[in-house]
Write a structure and sequence with these properties.
This protein has helices at about 20-45, 50-95; strands spanning about 5-10, 10-20. By secondary structure, the protein is an alpha+beta fold. The chain has a two-stranded antiparallel sheet. Strand 1 and strand 2 form a beta hairpin. The longest helix has about 45 residues, at about 50-95.
């Protein structure tokens, strides 16, 4: 059931449609995170335009996403290596039972 919601980012209100309560929560949490980061950049860079500040926020979020994806990829590689080690161990030692 779609629900119309409003979120405020950088002093502007945006109307969105949330398909689920979870999506609504995600939109609201994302808007809060953007506004917090925007406040930090506004304090550190007085006189910058909102476009400049939002571009900095977007760049920061993209970098964080890339870092997170790389971390996930490392965990997947570690898991695959562990699975291979377990399979070799089982082949070499059999199962006791």
């Amino acid at each position: 059931m779609d629900r119309k919601i409003n979120v405020k980012i950088g002093g502007r209100t945006y109307s969105l449609t949330a398909a689920t309560p979870q999506h609504e929560e995600e939109y609201r949490l994302a808007a809060e995170a953007i506004n917090r980061r925007l406040d930090v950049y506004t304090q550190k860079n007085p006189g910058r335009t909102m476009l400049d500040l939002m571009s900095m926020v977007a760049l920061n979020e993209a970098v964080c996403r890339i870092d997170f994806q790389r971390e996930i990829d490392r965990y997947k590689a570690d898991l695959k290596a562990l699975e291979g080690s377990m399979e070799r161990y089982i082949k070499e030692n059999g199962t006791k039972g």
